[in-house]
Amino acid sequence: MPNYSFRCAQGCAFDAIYPMSEVPSEVECRVCGSSAKRGITAPHLSAAGSAAFGLMDRAAKSAHEPAVVDRIPGRGPGKTQRTTQNPLHAKLPRA
């Protein structure tokens, strides 16, 4: 569930968790008891340490420091090129 920030007229600030369908625009302040209005905050979008976050870091690094290649990479053991028996495929252009 999303976390919402509230602030009252006296300057008390607190966070509260509500479902998106039930979030009120005003609540009672937990500190002084007056009316507190919901504020606008930035959403928490990233989960640091996740695979997606690591992928974005590697992509940004490779934009400025691309890997240097000194030879064409091999196919690896056991990888053969696929062949077809369809005679129409013989008419296709070769790369």
Fold and architecture overview:
With 95 residues, this protein is α+β, with helices and mostly antiparallel strands. The chain has a domain at 3-38. Helices cover 15% and strands 19% of the residues. The protein has one helix spanning 51-64, and strands at residues 3-8, 13-17, 26-28, 35-38. It has a 4-stranded antiparallel β-sheet, with no helix packed on it.
**Proportion of beta-strand residues:** 15-25%
Q: Please trace the helix and strand order, writing H or E for each element.
A: EEEEH
Strand line-up across the major sheet: 2-1-4-3
Measured between the Cα atoms of the first and last residue, the distance is 52 Å
Provide a brief overview of the structure:
This protein is an alpha+beta fold and 95 residues long.
Give the topology, please.
Blueprint: E1 3-8, E2 13-17, E3 26-28, E4 35-38, H1 51-64
Antiparallel strand pairs: 1-2, 1-4, 3-4
